[in-house]
Structure formats: C-alpha cells, structure tokens
Write a structure and sequence with these properties.
The chain is mostly helical. Helix content is 59%, strand content 7%. Among the domains are: 98 residues, Arc Repressor Mutant, subunit A; 71 residues, Alpha Horseshoe (Serine Threonine Protein Phosphatase 5, Tetratricopeptide repeat). The chain contains ten helices and six strands, in the order βββαβααββααααααα.
C-alpha cells in the first residue's frame, strides 16, 4: 500500500508512538499494543512471527497468556488502523501470514524509515559535493524527531531501539555539523557544539568538530582547551588518552 494513498496511516516512532489518518490521530491503545505496532513498523512488509512479538513485549519472561495477548493486541491494532473497514472485510494493513503478521505500509509513511532514507540521501549528496542539499536533507531528517524514540514503551525491543536510534540521531547531528563546517558556517556552530559537548563530554567526534570550528573562528587557544579538557576527563575516568584522530588534530594545532 502506498504512503500516497489517503487511506494509509502515518506512523511516528521518533517520539511517543502515534498514528494518524490525515490530521486525525488514532487511538492505538495500551503501551503493549503500541510495542507490537512498533515492532511491526520497524520491519514493514516483512512477516514478524508471534514469537518475535512476544520477545519484543516481554523478553525472556513472558506470561502464560502471551500468545492470546498478542492476538488481542493485533485485533485492536487492526480496528485502530483501519477504522473505516466494513464488518466482514479482511484487514488490508495488518495481515496474518503463517504464524506471524505483516504491516503492509509503505516505508515512507513511517518516520523512522523516512529519517534513515533522508540521512542516506544526504550522505550521497555530501560525497557529490552538494553541501546545500545535504544540509537540507539532514535538517529535514532531524526535524522528524519529537523526543525520545518509542518513549514510554516497555520491553527489550523498545529499549534496544531507543539506544540504536539515539546513537544514529547523534551521528546525524555530527554529520550536519560536518556539512555546515565544510560550507563555511563555523561561526553558527560554536555555540551549538559547545552545548553538545557539555551534554556528551566524552564524545570525541563532537570535540573534534568544536575544535575545528573554533580554529576557523580564530579561537585557537580555546580549541586547544577543548582537547585538554577531554583528555583530562578520559585520563581521570578510565586512564585512557583521546583517540588518534583527535590527537592528530591537537598536534596540528600545536604546530601552527
């Protein structure tokens, strides 16, 4: 089913799990039911077995009623996602296939897949030298976020996806900063990167970007201080030194 089809819902995973038909938000029900939807939406148009859904919701300690509960959650999702479906008409969006289910929805209607597609498109544009286009795609991708992904959902699946997506988002923020820096926008980056390094003090990619932005803004002494700060933190916390990329950047600054 195409995302362009007006009858197809739009799904949000990059924040609280939500769905809309047009401008109307759908009632997706309980957190467990939304976890089932999220597990299906991460893998659209692929059969997800009942066992996989049970593991997504409860992990290694499912209740004895797990099989029946999954059936109930799927039935509720079918009603929620296709509110106009006539009685006796088979479901079009959430199909039963063998011992599992498949969410038949264009990936473009699900924000997490739209985010990943925009990110990959931006990388191609950056490689081709289209920095303006890359920045636009990255900013559109980041604009799809509405808080903590899959927020409020229980279970190991949601926890793993939150960790994965949070890391990918931060890498996308770094990629955008790289593109802006390559475009000569160092002045606008300093405050943003300073705040990010406070939030992620051991993130060496952010430190390197901030150092480069400061150097281009003729603030070499501050750039060196950024390196000194992260080195001191690493030595104190784990007895390690910064990685080779950050050390090379620091050595280049000292030689200038």
């Amino acid at each position: 089913m195409s995302a362009a089809d007006r009858s197809a819902p739009r799904l949000q995973l990059l924040g609280p799990v939500k769905a809309w038909h047009g401008e109307v938000e759908l009632d997706l029900g309980s957190a467990h039911r939304r976890t089932v939807l999220a597990a299906l939406a991460v893998n659209p148009n692929r059969t997800v077995s009942r066992e996989e859904l049970i593991d997504a919701v409860w992990g290694e300690a499912p209740p004895q009623s797990a099989q029946g509960s999954i059936y109930t959650y799927v039935s509720g999702l079918r009603r929620a996602l296709e509110p106009g479906r006539a009685k006796g008409e088979g479901p079009q969006l959430l199909a039963s296939i063998g011992s599992g289910y498949s969410l038949r929805l264009d990936a473009g209607a699900i924000d997490v897949h739209r985010f990943e597609a925009l990110r990959e498109q931006a990388l191609r544009k950056q490689s081709a030298g289209d920095l303006r286009g890359a920045r636009e795609d990255l900013e559109e991708a980041l604009g799809l976020w509405h808080g903590v992904p899959l927020s409020g959902l229980p279970g190991p699946f949601a926890a793993a996806q939150r960790a994965r997506l949070t890391e990918v988002r931060l890498a996308t923020v770094e990629r955008r900063a790289e593109v802006v820096l390559e475009s000569g926008g160092h002045a606008e980056l300093v405050a943003e990167l300073t705040a990010l390094t406070r939030e992620h003090p051991f993130r060496e990619t952010l430190r390197g970007l901030l150092m480069r932005a400061l150097v281009r803004a003729d603030r070499r002494t501050e750039a060196i201080a950024v390196y000194t700060d992260v080195r001191d933190r690493l030595v104190e916390s784990s007895g390690t030194e910064p990685g080779p990329a950050l050390r090379r950047l620091y050595d280049q600054l000292r030689e200038q």
